[in-house]
Design a protein that fits this description.
about 160 residues; globular
Length: about 160
């Protein structure tokens, strides 16, 4: 009888774990539209922020150490900056087809369109060195460092998934 109890308990544990995965059906279709250009995604964000009364400055390509990355810097009235930035992100969702994705932190706004991800940290808008100042980072899936070893061959493009 003593040997039967552990065997029965182990059998129950195994049968409870026999089917840990649930079939959720087919994967959603992959987007077939071409990926938007850097100019297009910067224009989406710049116009959405301008519609909320916030002007932004684009960092020059020479100042950025990675390819496929863009930075926008803005300054708004500290009393309304957070709501202005939130409204601009809502505008790019409704007007330009961006979709909200899970942010890396609780205070970030993160959206995606094609192969581009845009994010900004609302905590910095509220309590940064200069309240009302903020940065928006746009990054595509194929970003990499511009500093390359000249002896190394360029990396091959990523195969489609």
């Amino acid at each position: 009888m003593r040997g039967l109890l552990p065997v029965t308990a182990a059998g129950l544990a195994l049968s409870a774990c026999a089917h840990p995965f649930q079939d959720l059906g087919p994967l959603p279709p992959r987007p077939t539209a071409p990926a938007p250009s850097a100019e297009r995604v910067v224009a989406d964000l710049t116009s959405a922020l301008a519609a909320e009364g916030v002007a932004v400055r684009r960092r020059s390509a020479e100042e950025i150490s990675t390819t496929c990355t863009e930075h926008l810097f803005g300054r708004a009235d500290p009393a309304t900056a957070e709501s202005d930035v939130k409204a601009a992100f809502a505008r790019v969702r409704s007007d330009d087809g961006w979709r909200r994705v899970r942010p890396v932190s609780g205070s970030a706004l993160t959206h995606r369109k094609g192969n581009w991800t845009v994010t900004t940290d609302l905590r910095a808008v509220r309590t940064g060195v200069q309240p009302g100042s903020f940065a928006v980072t746009l990054m595509c899936d194929a970003f990499e460092s511009k500093r390359r070893d000249e002896t190394r061959a360029p990396s091959a493009p990523h195969p489609p998934r």
